[in-house]
Amino acid sequence: LTSTTKYCNSEMASESETAADEFPDVLKSDKCTYLKGEKLGAGSFGEVFYYKTQDTFKKVAVKFMDKTDGRDELKILNKIRVFDPDENCLVRVLEHFEYKSTMCVLFEKLDQTVSSFAMNRKKPYDVCELRPVAQQLMVALKALKSIGVVHCDIKPNNIMLVDQQSSPYKVKLIDFGLARKKSKLTCQSRIQVLGYKAPEAVFGCPMDEGVDMWSVGCVLASFILKKGIRVKNFFNFNKKSEGSKYTFKTADEYMPLPIEYSKEDESDFEEFKSLLKQMLNVDPTKRITPEEALNHSFITMSHLSSRTDDSYVKEAQQFMSVCQPTTSVETDAHKTDGKTVCGQNTKVNSTPTSVQDSAVPPVKKTTKKKTLCHDPVSTYKHTVA
Q1: Where is the composition biased (Polar residues) (predicted)?
Q2: Binding-site residues from annotation for ATP
C-alpha cells in the first residue's frame, strides 16, 4: 500500500510538473512578459489561460496549441488581421510565438460568452436584444466571405460579449481552430458540432460559407427558445419492413411552441421569424447571404419606421447603437503594420479598400474610411425622415 501511494503521488507530481512546464507562470515573447492567471477553458485544439502584461497588468487570453494545429489556425488568423477587428466583429489577435513544443497565440480579453450571459440571467433573449447580435454576426460573416474564409464552428461558446456593462450586446466571433478556406471545403470535411451542423455537412454534400449562416440561425433560434438545438428535431423517422428512412420535416410538422411577447413588438417578432426561416433554408443555394441579411427589415428596422415615439422602438434603437462603426485604439502588444508593440497606443489597421460599403445609405455623407459594418440606427433614422 505504501509503495502504491508513493507511486500515485509520484505520478500526480509528474503531471503537475508537466502542466506547469506547458503553461508557465511567466511567459515571454520578444516584446512583452506575461504573468499567468486563471484557466479559461480547453478544447480539442488547445487550452486557453488568462495572462496579464507585467508592466501594465493588462489581461490577455493565451491559447496554447500543438504546433501543427497552431500553424493551420495562424494562417487563417493572419488572413482576418487585414480587417479592423472592432468594426468587423472579429476577435483581435495580439501576437503569436512558439514556446517549447507549443504555439502560443494571444488574443484580446473579452467579457463572457453569449450563452453564459443568458444562463446567468436565467431568461431567454428578447428579439430586441438579439437584433444587434444578429447584425454583428452578419458583419463578421460578410468579412470572412470577402476573403474566402469559412468559420465552420459557430456556436454560442464561440460568440463573446466584448463588455456587457459598457457596451451591451457588442459581440465578437472567436475561435478559428476549425476555420478554413472555402476552396478547401470538400464533401468529406468534418466541420461543425451537432446541433449547429448544416444539412449539407450532415449528408456530405458540397459546402460553402452557407454552413456558417445555418449555424447562426441555430444559435439565434436556441436563444429565443432557450432550448438547445438537436438534429433529431429536423427529421421524421419512418421504420418500414424494407429498412429505415429519414425525411426532413416540413414547417407544419413542428410542434407549435408558445412564445410570450407583447403586442407592441409582434411585428418585430414576425420579421425575426422571417429572417430565421431564410437562415435555416435547407437548400444552401436559397439560404440568405450575409449581405442580404444585413438588408433584411428585421436588421434595418424599416418595419418600425412609423413608430417614432414608441418606447419599444427607442429601446431597440438604443440596443443597435453598438453596431455603429467605431474607431478604437490598440494597447499592450497589439499589432500594428504587421509588428507587435508592447505598451504603446497605436491605431488599428483599417478595413481593406476592396471591401465595399453597406448597400444601406447613411443619413449624411462622411469622410470615414470604408468598413464592413452596417449602421442600422442611421438607416432607421433615414427611413423615418
Answers
A1: 344-357
A2: 63
> Model-level pTM greater than 0.85?
no
For the ranges 82-86, 89-93, 105-109, 378-382, the lowest mean pLDDT is seen at: 378-382
How far are the Cα atoms of 303, 311, 333, 385 from residue 308, in angstroms, in the given order? 11, 9, 45, 10
DSSP bridge pairs for 347: 329
What digits encode the pLDDT tens for the residues 153-169?
Answer: 999 999 999 999 999 99
Looking at residue 253, its pLDDT comes to 64
Alpha-carbon dihedral sign for residues 154, 142, 177, 62: negative
Query: Quick check: is 216 in a domain?
Result: yes
Nearest partner of 105 among 64, 145, 162, 148, judged by Cα: 64
Task: Look over the chain and give the mean of its residue pLDDT values, rounded to a whole number.
Answer: 79
CA–CA distance, 109 with 303 (Å, rounded to integer): 37
Find residue 36's DSSP bridge partners.
51
> Of 108, 125, 150, which residue is a domain's last?
108
pLDDT > 90? residue 52:
yes
Q: Give the C-alpha separation, 376 to 298, whole Å.
A: 10
The domain containing residue 93 runs over which residues?
22-108
Q: What's the pLDDT tens digit per position in 299-325?
A: 999 999 999 889 999 999 999 999 965
3-class SS of residue 335: strand
Question: Which grid cell is 349?
Answer: 489597421
Same domain, 286 and 203: yes
Q: Does the CA dihedral 315-319-320-326 come out positive or negative?
A: positive
Helix (H) or strand (E) segment spanning residue 317: helix 311-319
| Same domain flag for 141 and 91 | no
d(CA 159, CA 118): 12
Residues 138 and 62 in one domain: no
Binding-site residues, please?
Answer: 63
Collapsing DSSP states into helix, strand and coil, what is residue 300?
Answer: helix
Q: Which three cell numbers stand for residue 332?
A: 499592450
Confidence check: pLDDT of 227 > 80: no
Dihedral of the alpha carbons of 97, 89, 180, 42, in degrees to the nearest 10 = 60
Q: Which residues contact 235 (CB under 8 A, 6 or more apart)?
A: 246, 247, 248, 249
pLDDT of residue 263 exceeding 60, the answer is no
